[in-house]
């Protein structure tokens, strides 16, 4: 039978694995909390920022070609939420 000293060693690896996973999870949560986390526009493939930048690009092109006036440009820029 033995003295029973080695009985707990079989489960010791599970303790260390859970401890390491807990530390990693804590680090991830801390980085997200202090780093601003993930916003809706950051999720996925970044479609929101691409659409917004594409809209701004089209607006800039139309203004450069003279299709819209400065006033219209500023109004539409404000509507996009990109006031200068």
From TrEMBL:
The keyword Cell inner membrane does not apply. InterPro entries: SHOCT. Residues 37-56 are annotated as: Disordered. The chain crosses the membrane at residues 12-34. Residues 57-79 form the SHOCT domain. Residues 40-56 have a biased composition (Basic and acidic residues). Keywords: Membrane, Transmembrane, Transmembrane helix. It comes from the Bacteria. This is Putative membrane protein. It comes from Blastococcus aggregatus.
